[in-house]
Design brief:
This protein has 560 residues and is α/β, with parallel strands linked by helices. It has three domains: 142 residues, Trna Endonuclease, Chain: A, domain 1 (3-Layer(aba) Sandwich); 135 residues, 3-Layer(aba) Sandwich (Rossmann fold); 209 residues, no CATH class. 45% of the residues lie in helices and 11% in strands. It has 25 helices and 14 strands. A six-stranded mixed β-sheet has the order 6-8-9-10-7-11, with helices on both faces. The longest helix has 16 residues. It starts with 6 loop residues before the first helix and ends in an 11-residue tail after the last helix.
């Protein structure tokens, strides 16, 4: 990342009132990035800068990056009177070294400002021969160090308001993950039920450079998982990893970063194949979609449902809502999290015009059983294409953080149907609605064979082959569709042909209640009365009133 951070950036940053508390962290991260085997790096930041003692201490076994071996004590200054501050700190520590053996210790003064006189000052102090050696570093040195430490340069860019292109620091990505939702979701949630994956990743991070694949719902989950793993390490090991970790978003940035420094941790997308040759100097985590990784990939499986519900509740979500969201998301933490995003997520790929038209009928059907031939026929009739072709079209969109469908065995269900309805409604066709209206009454009024056997044996109905031709999943999906048409639709969409969407729903429901004179009418629709009544109260209440007026009320014959 050559040229990302320049001297003028550091000079401007030095004038901020927060810089004295942040400067020690910058030095600490740079040292962790530059040094391979430090014995100790201690630079307290934030509130700890008020503590007595040196601003920082470093101990290394051999000379690295122009820093001498052994112990060095550091004093940091950010104000404009650089030499006066350097003299003050030098004289104070020369008079009282706080027990440090000056003859065997290097004294270092560092400033984030440009200091043309640093070499002359250090030379003059070295002639006093009090300390083993005296060094001074300024903005020029820090810029050069950051050129060798791209992860730290990107981190500093975020702190200083300098936004690089194509790269993000991992610690910042972790903070973005937390702040993206309301309530805020702790990234540590990505570790739930994944201890074996955590152990594999941590071994990888502390080993020689290599390339691995990580199967995750999306980049956000993968980055949060890696960052949360690092957060489990001791503080000094965390600093070492943060100082070398980058999220890379495009191939140009990857080539630049891979050419700078060594032993970085680079998190890249599925697009990064093949990796550039110099990527072998770094540990590369390539994030791939579920099912797309090799046999050696780390797979982020969904956590146990009970653990997930407990975790979501701990983030400040009501228990009942957490239960519903987790089951709607089929146990996927990332799907639950995305339902709480402060700003809605970008449109998923299946909502793009080139795809949406071929899958839109799914939201009109809602749910069905793919092993049921009658269900297949209904779906084919509404979609207007052969069922096998339609299933192939939607089958590509069952994975990831924003799936169109979820599938459990042979049961298909539209995921997050209210959101999907809004995205796919513009792509529905009038012909599909016509077929839906014509076919709905046939399904909803299908007799229920369970009532042909004694009440005490009805729980064994499936074993006796007493089941409807169409599945309960399809009936439920249709009933919900009628409710969505009546309450959640946009009348301006072309598919409604200038007619209110509510009127389309009412046509379906009137067609059902017009047949109330048929035998066992109320028994047939008893499981879906709630949706039918809410979607169109007038036909429901009218039929109810007429039946109650009759001497022998058919409604009273409905089993409870």
């Amino acid at each position: 990342m050559y040229g990302l951070i320049r001297v003028e950036h550091l000079n401007a940053w030095a004038g901020r009132y927060t810089t004295p508390a942040e400067f020690p962290r910058l030095i600490r991260l740079l040292l962790w990035a530059l040094l391979r085997t430090p014995r100790a790096i201690n630079f307290p930041a934030d509130e700890a800068v008020r503590s007595a003692g040196y601003d920082g201490q470093l101990e290394i076994a051999t000379t690295e990056a122009i820093l001498p071996e052994g112990l060095s004590v550091w004093e940091l200054g950010t104000n404009v009177r650089i030499k006066a501050k350097a003299d003050e700190d030098y004289e104070k520590r020369t008079k009282d070294s706080l027990g440090v053996d000056q003859a065997n210790t290097t004294f270092v003064f560092a400033t984030p400002r440009a200091w043309p006189g640093k070499a002359a000052w250090a030379e003059a102090r070295n002639e006093e021969k009090v300390w083993r050696r005296v060094l001074a570093f300024d903005a020029e040195d820090l810029v050069q160090w950051m050129e060798l430490s791209p992860a730290v340069a990107v981190w500093f860019g975020r702190v200083a308001g300098i936004m690089p292109t194509g790269v993000r620091d991992l610690k910042g990505a972790l903070e973005d993950y937390r702040l993206a939702t309301q309530p805020e979701f702790d990234p540590a949630g990505t570790l739930i039920g994944r201890q074996p994956q955590v152990e594999v990743l941590l071994r990888t991070l502390t080993s020689e450079p290599t390339a691995i694949e990580l199967e995750a719902a999306n980049r956000e989950e993968a980055e949060a998982f890696v960052g949360a793993c690092i957060s489990t390490l001791p503080q000094d090991q965390q600093d070492q990893q943060w100082a070398r970790s980058l999220c890379v978003d495009d191939s140009d940035a990857l080539r630049q970063v891979a050419a700078a420094g060594e032993q970085l941790l680079l998190i890249v997308g599925e697009w990064a194949s093949p990796l550039p040759a110099n990527a072998r100097k770094h540990t590369t985590v390539r994030v791939v979609a579920p099912g797309k990784g090799t046999a050696a990939a780390i797979v982020l499986a969904d956590p146990n449902m009970r653990q997930l519900i407990d975790w979501v509740e701990k983030q400040g979500v009501d228990l009942n809502e957490a239960f519903k969201r987790c089951y709607d998301a089929a146990g996927s933490l990332e799907r639950v999290r995305r339902s709480y995003l402060r700003a809605g997520p970008p449109p998923p790929a299946w909502a793009q015009p080139e795809v949406a038209a071929s899958v839109a009928a799914a939201v009109l059907v809602g749910s069905w059983n793919s092993s049921n031939r009658a269900d297949q026929g209904f779906v084919a009739r509404v979609s207007g294409v052969d069922y096998t072709l339609f299933e192939a079209a939607i089958g590509s969109w069952t994975l990831g953080a924003d799936p169109l469908m979820t599938r459990a065995g042979d049961d298909w269900r539209v995921h997050n149907r209210l959101d999907v309805w809004g995205r796919l409604e513009p792509f529905l066709r009038t012909g599909q609605l016509d077929e839906f209206v014509r076919a709905t009454a046939e399904v909803m009024l299908e007799p229920d064979p369970r009532f042909d056997i004694p009440p005490s044996d009805r729980w064994l109905a499936n074993m006796h082959g007493k089941r409807r031709v169409h599945s309960e999943a399809l009936r439920s999906g249709i009933a919900d569709s009628l409710l969505y048409l009546a309450t959640k639709s946009d009348d301006r969409q072309p598919c409604y042909s200038g007619v209110r969407a509510q009127d389309w729903s009412e046509r379906c429901i009137r067609a059902v209640f017009e047949r109330r004179r048929e035998p066992h009418f109320w028994r047939r629709i008893r499981g879906n009365l709630t949706q039918l009544g809410e979607a169109s109260p007038e036909p429901f209440l009218s039929a109810l009133e007429q039946d109650l007026r009759e001497l022998t009320c058919p409604l009273l014959a409905v089993p409870t």
